[in-house]
Write a structure and sequence with these properties.
With about 230 residues, the protein is of the alpha/beta class. It is about 40% helix and about 15% strand. It is built from seven helices and seven strands; from the N terminus they run βαββαβαβαβαααβ. It is globular, with a radius of gyration of 17 Å. The protein starts with a strand and ends in a 7-residue tail after the last strand.
């Protein structure tokens, strides 16, 4: 049986991805503070900002993988703050790094021994992993680092039969985006894609499933953004 372990599948891209994989016949295990509402998903409750998170969930998580013949680990959960280089709070920055970078590295280390040939490690990045905008200092910094982590993952796992990629969504219709962008600005944001609309989370879920099934993408950065119009 093919199994998906995904962080942050309670809403948004994570929920859509869990549904996409489940519909394709995968067993889905979600790691997050809130449960994934989909029937049949195994929920492992955890706070990814907690440095002791992996130690707390390792036994339950590994038990949930019994019978898995191949595993895809998707690092989806992320923290997005309104902050700037002039006023970033060091403790908030540490929390962002715990969720966006340290938790993925810790989960990689835990689950790699359970990964056979054909498995994958996928990172949900952002178009802000390759550029920057004002007011998102910690998020931009962490998403640049996610691409570096993926590329290092590719090099370290060469010859293992495990592949990796970083999928960079553009402006996707999620609670995270709506919390970050004022409602009156959202129509303008939608027009920043070549299709004049926001991305549906299911489109990112389908992209992640494709990446999980195609090792030729190993080491790749995929910009899933409908073609952003640069201004």
């Amino acid at each position: 049986m093919q199994c998906l372990v995904i962080t942050g599948a309670s809403s948004g891209i994570g929920l859509a991805t869990a549904n996409t994989f489940q519909q394709a016949g995968w067993r889905v295990i979600n790691i997050s503070r809130s449960a994934c509402p989909l029937k049949g998903v195994v929920n492992v409750t955890a706070d990814l900002a907690d440095p002791t998170m992996v130690a707390k969930i390792s036994a339950l998580l590994l038990d949930s993988l019994e019978g898995c013949t191949a595993l895809s680990l998707i690092h989806n959960a992320a923290r997005l703050d309104h902050d700037t280089v002039q006023a970033v709070d060091p403790e908030a920055l540490r929390q962002t790094y715990e969720i966006n970078l340290i938790a993925p590295a810790a989960l990689n280390r835990l689950l790699l021994p359970a990964m056979s040939e054909g498995s994958s490690i996928l990172y949900v990045g952002s178009t802000l992993g390759e550029k920057a905008v004002p007011g998102s200092f910690s998020y931009v910094t962490s998403k640049h680092a996610s691409i570096g982590m993926m590329r290092a993952t590719c090099q370290d796992l060469a010859g293992s039969g495990i592949h990796t990629a970083c999928i960079n969504p553009g402006f996707t219709d999620t609670e995270m985006l709506r919390d970050h962008i004022p409602a009156d600005v959202m129509p303008e944001i939608a027009q920043m894609s070549a299709f004049g609309r926001l991305i549906d989370p299911t489109e990112i879920g389908a992209t992640l499933l494709f990446a999980a099934q195609n090792p030729v993408l190993n080491g790749s950065v995929l910009n899933a953004n409908l073609g952003q119009i640069e201004r």
